Amino acid sequence: MSIVYHEASKVFHLYNKTVSYIMMILPNGHMGQLYFGKKIHDREDFSYLLELAPRDMASYLYDNDRTFSLGHIKQEYPVYGSGDYRHPAVVVLQNDGSIYSDFVFSKYRISAGKPRLPGLPATYTESDDEAETLTIELRDTHDNLELNLMYTIFANGGIIARSASISNYGHDSVQLKTAMSLCLDLPDHDYEWMQFSGAWARERALHIRRLEYGIQAIDSMRGHSSHEQNPFIILKRPPADEFQGEVIGCSLIYSGNFLAQAEVESHGTTRILMGINPFGFSWKLNSGEQFQTPEAILVYSPNGLNDMSQMMHRLYRSRLARGYWRDRVRPILINNWEATYFDFTEEKLIQLAQKACKCGIELFVLDDGWFGKRTSSKAGLGDWIPNSERLPDGLKGLADKIENLGIKFGLWIEPEMVNADSDLFRAHPDWIYKVPGRKPCHGRYQYVLDFSRQEIVDHIFEKISLLLESANISYIKWDMNRSLTDVWSSGISAEQQGEVFHRYILGVYQLYERLTTRFPKVLFESCASGGARFDAGMLYYAPQGWISDDTDAIQRLSIQYGTSYGYPISSMGSHVSASPNHQLHRQTPLWTRANTAYFGTFGYELDLTRLSDNELSKLKIQTDFMKKYRQLIQFGRFYRLLSPFGNNVTAWMVVDENRNEALVGWYRTLNVVNGPFTRLHLQGLDESCFYDVMEFVEGSPSAVTSHYGDELMNLGLITSDASSGQYADGRRESCDFDSRLFYLKKK
Ligand code: GLA
Question: Hey, is 405 helix, strand or coil?
Answer without folding.
Answer: helix
